[in-house]
Amino acid sequence: MPAGEGPASRQSRPGFGSVVEVLLLLLVMCSAKMLDRSVSRPRRTSTTAGAEQISASAAKLRLLKKLRCTLKFEKRAWAAGARHVAGVDEVGRGSLFGPVVAAAVILYNNDEPAHRIRGLRDSKLLPAERREELALLIRQHSIAWAVAAVDSARIDQINIYQASRLAMLRVVQQLEPAASHLLVDAVRLDCELPQQAIVHGDALSASIAAASILAKVERDRMISAWDPVFPMYGLASNKGYGTPPHLAALREYGPSPLHRQSFSPVWNAPIPQEVLGFMLEPGLDGDVPSEQAQVAAG
User: Fold this and answer.
1) What is the CATH number of the domain that holds 123?
2) What is the pLDDT of residues 99-125, one digit of tens each?
3) Is the distance from CB of 122 to CB of 270 less than 8 angstroms?
4) Could you tell me the residue range of the domain that residue 149 belongs to?
C-alpha cells in the first residue's frame, strides 16, 4: 500500500466497479426509453406513406401559391434588346393516356401593353372555368400564340422528356411573328434562339403562365373528346392521370391504344394493350388537328 493511502482514502474515490455500474444503469435507462418509444409509436403502414406523399404534393402547391407571377423575366429580355419574348410550357407529362401538349405565347412586347391580361398564373392553380376565360383573352390579345402536341406512340419511342421538348420546339417554330427570346419552363430547347430555363416558370413568368393555360385548356379538350370512346377509364374527370379508378380500369380492361406503353402502370397491366383498326385511319393519331395547331398574330 502506498504511503499515506489507507482504507479511508480508498473509499473516498470511486473505483472501477462503481463506474461500470453507472454505465450499466445509463444503458438500462436508454434501452427502456427506446422500448417505450417503439411501443407508443405505431409502425409505418402504406396508408401513412400515402398520407406523406399527399402532404408532399400539397406542400408543393402551397409553394406555388406563394410565388408571384410577374413580368420580371420579360423586362430583362426587353432591356437586353429582345422584342418578341415568348413563354413556352407543356402539359400532360405525367399522364398515362394521350399526347403531351405544348404552347408558346408572345404575350406583350413592352411593359405597357394596350390590353393587360389580369390573373395569369400557373394553370394548376386555376379552376377550369377561369382557365377557359383566360385562354380566350390570351388568344384575343396576345401578339402570337401556338399549340402543338406529340402523341403517345412518339412518347413511347423517344421517352416523355424528349417528347415534351419536341412539342415545345414545334410551337416555337410555328410562332408568327417569330420569337427573338424564349422563356421556358425548366428545360432548354434545341434551337439557337436566346433562351432562359426557369424552374417553376409557370408560377413566376406571365408569358410562361399564359402558355401553360393554353396548353392545359387544349389538352383537357382533347382528352375529354376521347372519353365517349373509352368510357371505362374516366378520362373526362382524370384527364388521363393515374387516379385510383383509372388504375383499377387498367387492371380490369387493359390499356387502350392511346395509353402510353412506356409508363409502368400501362405495361404492368395484366391485359395486353390492344390496337384497334379504326385507330389507323388518318387524323386519329392523337396529334392536335391542323386547325387547332394554329397561330394567332396580333
Assistant:
1) 3.30.420.10
2) 999 999 999 999 889 899 999 999 999
3) no
4) 66-227+285-297
